[in-house]
Amino acid sequence: MAMFQPILNGKNSKTFLTPSKESKIPCPKCGSKLIERVGKRGKFYGCSAYPKCRFIVNGEPLDWSCPDCGSMVIHKKLKSGEFYACINKDCKFKQKAEEKEAS
Ligand SMILES: [Zn+2]
Ligand SMILES: [Zn+2]
Q1: What is the pTM of this model?
Q2: Are residues 72 and 95 located together in one domain of the fold?
Q3: Sheet with 60-65: strands ordered across
Q4: Which ligand is nearest to the CA of 70?
Q5: Which domain holds residue 2?
Q6: How far apart are CA 18 and CA 38, in angstroms?
Q7: CB atoms < 10 A from the CB of 45, how many?
Q8: Could you report the per-residue pLDDT of 63-90, keeping only the tens digit for each?
């Protein structure tokens, strides 16, 4: 007798399996891959070596570095638009996402 049957009618399958998306970008602190996580305040990227390494960024890491200081640049989605921003708190680098198109 089948006591339990997997609920596989497509629509519900999303709720129990949410694989974290791995980015190609290594953690600037330890070199592990950064992965997409979902927290109380929305999506963010964190180090896959967590909790050993607690590096997190609140945007999607990009594979180019800040022209001003060489730190990691992330893709941020704000109400005012999409931006590329440097993760270095001492660096003011920030650019509208559209402007990066043609390089
Ligand atoms: Zn790390
Ligand atoms: Zn910078």
Answers
A1: 0.71
A2: yes
A3: 60-65, 72-78, 81-86, 94-96
A4: 2
A5: 1-58
A6: 10
A7: 26
A8: 999 999 999 999 998 888 999 999 999 9
